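Quick question: what would this complex look like in 3D?
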Amino acid sequence: MSCRIGMDVGGTNVVTGLFDSEGRLLRRSKVRTIKLSSCELIQQLAGQCKEILAAEGVRESELEAVGIGLPGFIQSESGVVSSANLPFNDVPVATRLQQLLGVPVAVENDVKMVVYGEYLHGAGKGYSHVLGLTIGTGMASAWVSDGRLHEGAGGLAGEIGHISFPDISYMCGCGMKGCLETVASTAGIARQARDGLKAGWVGLLAERFPPEIRDELTSHDVWQAYLDGDAFAGQVFQRTANWLSRVLVPSIALLSPDVIIVGGGVAAAGDIFFDSLRSYVSASLHPLYRERLRIVPPSLGDDGGLYGSAEFALKSRKIGLRI
Amino acid sequence: MSCRIGMDVGGTNVVTGLFDSEGRLLRRSKVRTIKLSSCELIQQLAGQCKEILAAEGVRESELEAVGIGLPGFIQSESGVVSSANLPFNDVPVATRLQQLLGVPVAVENDVKMVVYGEYLHGAGKGYSHVLGLTIGTGMASAWVSDGRLHEGAGGLAGEIGHISFPDISYMCGCGMKGCLETVASTAGIARQARDGLKAGWVGLLAERFPPEIRDELTSHDVWQAYLDGDAFAGQVFQRTANWLSRVLVPSIALLSPDVIIVGGGVAAAGDIFFDSLRSYVSASLHPLYRERLRIVPPSLGDDGGLYGSAEFALKSRKIGLRI
């Protein structure tokens, strides 16, 4: 039996999925990765692959390919990675891991891998043109059309979180001022709420977070306050949906996707976010687009990136990329 | 010698181009089309094809395919056309013309054909990812990536002129309020200038267009006033570039094009428009995009649509579309 592995590498955890030749998920495992060096992390990734094969009783010779999704900028031709959240700075992750495992390894941006997985097996299954976005710790997009994951010039397609707007005043970690990601992200949700409280919001959030502990407020606290009935907390999610619609509306007119999949920690807020997003987007689009508009959450939960990277590895291997 | 024909069908003229098997333009002709019925226009298109073959001394049996670019909404699978500027309302233009000519006929939106032509032989030649926009009578876009002209779900990709913004107050011909096209188009240029004059602008435009003839003012007059030194006229083009940047910036982050080709009557204003556009776009993008940003005018003049539609016809024929 031939098999492949998909890995979702984050700043805190590595999740590994073993798939059979039909693309069925046989087994998944999860380990913590914090405070490892570049070498240690690559060793750990190789170790995870070997462990999951052993646990499932699969010989290493049956492994066809490994795919890895991780946050950061990936030079797609070479698999060289630079990431703010991982110990990789111009590290040829694909080549190193390939040497350790003896099989082709493909490395791609994690958001692209999640969206590719959703396109193949999740909320995008059966559609030709799928636009996916993640709005969580950061914000990025991926575009799959007629089976092709779009890379763009320099592999730079999808960094929609770093569009700057003149009416956003926050500094971004990327060095620019007013990036969309500074408001439309989990940190952005918390930031909007803290600034609202400073400006005099009253209600549950204000009671729960007096000035002396205000800096501890997280996006989850805003969501909890919304669930408990705080009107201002609800407005934060509505406003965030409005920010996102500024990018989504031009994207829909430009590309006419069959479906738009929005995932990540902010989208996990559910109806308050999705209903607002659909409403803002509809209001700005021609009826022809409005009628066919589908804005949905992902359907593979946390496994989208595993499915996507495992399949992407196989596809890259077949067309001779990254080997 | 096998040959193909590309046609650019507008509300006023039909331009026809005859190409040899190497894609070289052998001959072009132009006729007026106004006030023809649907049947008459289709007859005229067939007649134009036969005439240009005869004029070049090419036998009709050597004609391989005909491609047509025209303004309007085209159901790309069937070649059925609905157009506000032509006498076509759900007319199967491709099928009818095919019956008259006995060769495969492909029909597509004119902006898509211009951009496809520029991708193959013009300002987009040699690039993998080409975004093209026309900002003239109307406003639309087309996206060519890895040789594929993107259609989108329902063939609806590219109607960026009909994105509505809350701070645009004009009604659009499409029935919506605040469409981008109401300000970013030749009519939009004239509209902005007329409203500026009403609001008290002074200078050349005000002298040339006193209230009693203000309605006669065209985008060309605004451009002429700018060339003659009118500051307000220059601002109209700058503001229009700013409107366009609202769509262009998200598009660049989403897709990372190698090059962006902006054509049409407004873009013909030249430096005042392009310099402003590059400046607004740069200010809102991450340096990674900024460094590789190329926003250029078309290089095929009025022939982009001929090149594009002739090649598109051949490609559609080969892959079995529309025949």
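Answer marked as accepted. Chain B has two domains: 3-115+302-318, 128-299.
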